[in-house]
Amino acid sequence: MPNQKSATKKSPSKTAAAKKAAPAIEAPVSMEPVESAVAAHQETIETVLKAGTQAATKGYEQAIALAQEQVEKASETIFKRYDEVTSLGKDNVDACVLSSTVFAKGVESMGKEFMSIAQSAVEANVATAKALFGAKTVREVIELQTEFSRSRFDSLVAESAKLTELSMALANDTIEPIQLRLNATVEKLMKPVAA
Fold it and tell me: pTM of the full predicted structure?
């Protein structure tokens, strides 16, 4: 068994070898070049960040300005179209009112014409009835009846032609304001928006 004292003792040759193997401490290395490189690198990073921030800010401002310009243009167009549609609506209502007025006046004049026709028919019937009651022979009654029938037929043809003419004029006069507004509306809607 070996002695414990000898195990704890170190040999002098090992200690000397360890001292020789340990690196020698040299004089302190200057940190100035590293610090200046770090400072230059930090300055470059700050410059790049500053330039990037400025570019981003400028781009953001340009985007905001462009967006505002587009919103203003769109708003102008929308309000212009709204005013046009409102104007069209008002004009269309005015055309409908005018058309209704023309129609009412036309129906009134047609009603007066019907009353005139009815009155002349009643007068003709009364005159024929008096003549028939005053007839003394059958031949005279037949002649009066034939004359009455012929005059009523001629009267009916003339009155029908007059009523047809009045109806056509009424239809044309009634539809004219609406037709004009329809044409104006279609023209306005088909016209592209002025930029």
Answer: 0.52
| DSSP class of 134 | T
Question: Which residue bears the tokens 């029938």?
Answer: 149
The answer to whether 166 touches 109, Cβ cutoff 8 Å, is yes
Report how far residue 122's alpha carbon sits from residue 119's, in angstroms, rounded to the nearest whole number: 5
Asked if 166 and 106 count as a contact pair (C-beta separation under 8 A), the reply is yes
Q: Is 131 helix (H, G, I), strand (E, B) or coil?
A: helix
Going by C-alpha positions, the residue among 90, 89, 83, 155 that lies closest to residue 116 is: 155
The model's pLDDT over 103-124, given as tens digits with 9 standing for 90+, comes to 999 999 999 999 999 999 999 9
What tokens does 150 get? 């012929």
CA distance linking residue 179 with residue 172, whole number of Å? 10
Q: How many helices (H) and strands (E) does the chain have?
A: 4, 0
| Distance between first and last Cα of the chain | 111
Q: Is the distance from CB of 88 to CB of 188 less than 8 angstroms?
A: yes
